[in-house]
Amino acid sequence: MPSLIVLNARGANLADKTLTLTGVAANSILFADRPVRAAGHAPTKQLIEEWAEGSDSFAKDPPNATISVLSKDGSTIRDAVVVLTSPKLDGEQLSFAVEVLEGSLDGADGPASVFIDIIGMPLTPLSFAGVARRTAYRGAWYAGAAAAAAPYYRPACGYYPYPPCY
Fold first, then answer.
1. 8 Å CB contact between 67 and 80
2. Rounded distance, CA 44 to CA 114, Å?
3. Which of 110, 120, 149, 156 has its Cα between 20 and 30 A from that of 104?
């Protein structure tokens, strides 16, 4: 089951109820947790295109996210917790309308990561917004499929619990 989406960017600015990511990565990282632990990638453009699709989309039930931004020299980090709505992707710039729940990005001028929490929406700990369910499932499925196929491509020696190769 998907549980987290991570967007990476060269920088982030939080002002006037708008989060702007500059130099956003073309691919987003997707994590799945129990019962199958897996990770994968999905095109950021695809995530944004699917944001409002379906009856249980992020447009109908916006996700919470934490934005973490380092200073350029890496000596400080600033975090903010927000509710993300209305994404707009323009080249390498991604912006969201946000409601700030806590924190500030003041003084942060380095690389940024946005951690989108897709668990617990809307009523139970195991319900997920539609965009994450569709996109993250695809990414996690490919990772899971690769993991399931791995035993067929590993040698019968050299890897625990197999004996050493001679």
1. yes
2. 12
3. 120
How do residues 92-150 score in pLDDT, each as one tens digit? 999 999 999 999 999 899 999 999 987 644 433 333 344 444 444 444 444 444 444 44
The label of the residue with tokens 């917004």 reads: 129
For tokens 């946000």, the residue is 98
Distance CA 28, CA 5 (A): 7
Model confidence at 3, pLDDT cuts 50, 70, 90, reads confident
Residues ≥6 apart with Cβ < 8 Å to 99: 17, 82, 83, 85
- Residue type, position 11, single letter: G
